[in-house]
Amino acid sequence: MRPKISFIIPAHNEENYIGNCLDSVLKEISRENYPAEIIVIDNNSSDKTKKIASGYPNVKILNEPVMGKPRACQRGFLESRGELVCNIDADVIMPAGWIKVVTKEFKKNPELVCLSGPHKFYDTPKSFRLLNSSYNLAIYATYISVRHILKIGSVTQGGNFIAKREALEKIGGFNHRFNFYGDDTDIAARLHKIGDVKFTLNLPVESSGRRLAKEGVLNIAFRYSLEYFWVVLFDKPLHKTYKVDNRFNKNQQLKMAFFKKPRATSKTSR
Predict the structure, then answer these.
(1) By C-alpha distance, which of 87, 91, 99 is closest to 9?
(2) Residue among 136, 188, 146 nearest 167 (CA)
(3) DSSP 235
(4) Virtual CA dihedral for 150, 203, 20, 174, nearest 10 degrees?
(5) How many Cα atoms occupy the beta-carbon half-sphere of 155 within 13 Å?
């Protein structure tokens, strides 16, 4: 018997992306004919996120009024029923074969409690792809160093990981001490204490590079790196808050002109 997968998707003001995300997940489930459930957690959205997600009859919608991604993920986790719990961002496009990689990895390693992979950005310029590939290789090198050499933790990408329910239950699920940055590092560190946490380049998802345009590539890379090592070394968040704001000033709008517009939401899966 194949373990059921619960797809947990936290969303705050994601009307431009949530439809494409749900379409891709539903298509992957259908391709593999795999037992699964999809749960979208509306994290206090003020746009049409909830309305769009509600148009999918096979998707469960939950409300979490308290802002914060870990809180939304924890709400979805507690309401889910799958033996495997997958956390993805609302702007993720899941590629064909994602479930095959997951089932293969968990089948070949009974000690595996969590599996994660990188992000590839679908709306960035072609010139950015090499930088993105280099960044993912750096993440993988960090994973090898921290898990296999130093043996003090592991690596997960918060918008692309899947874990065993029993393992998440043992660690108490998602940590409310984290508001945004460092939550995935915290999950990896705590799961590492009870089993294998693997990061593989063979499990990518596509997602939007909008935050790269808004905040800057170097700024995000520095902030994530600093937060990662801070959590690994001191077991607490460095940045305790993160304000989610989808508005762009004129300078940021100019940067976004180099990015592709969000894909049109498909209606075929509704």
Answers:
(1) 87
(2) 188
(3) S
(4) -30
(5) 25
Rounded Cα–Cα distance for residues 72 and 12 (Å) = 10
Q: Tokens 């590839």 map to which residue?
A: 120
Residue 112, classed as helix, strand or coil, is: strand
Give residue for tokens 């991604």: 69
**Structure tokens, 66:** 């308290």
**pLDDT tens figures, 85-129:** 999 999 999 999 999 999 999 999 999 999 999 999 998 888 777
Q: Are 36 and 29 in contact (CB under 8 A)?
A: yes
Q: 26-44, pLDDT tens digit by residue?
A: 999 999 999 999 999 999 9
Contact 12/5 with Cβ under 8 angstroms?
A: no
| Spatial distance between the Cα atoms of 204 and 89, rounded to a whole number of angstroms | 13
CA distance linking residue 63 with residue 66, whole number of Å: 9
pTM of the full structure: 0.84
Inter-residue contact 5 to 162 (CB < 8 Å): yes
Gap between the Cα atoms of 209 and 122, Å rounded: 7
Q: Provide the β-strand partners of residue 116.
A: 161, 199
Q: Which amino acid is at 26?
A: L
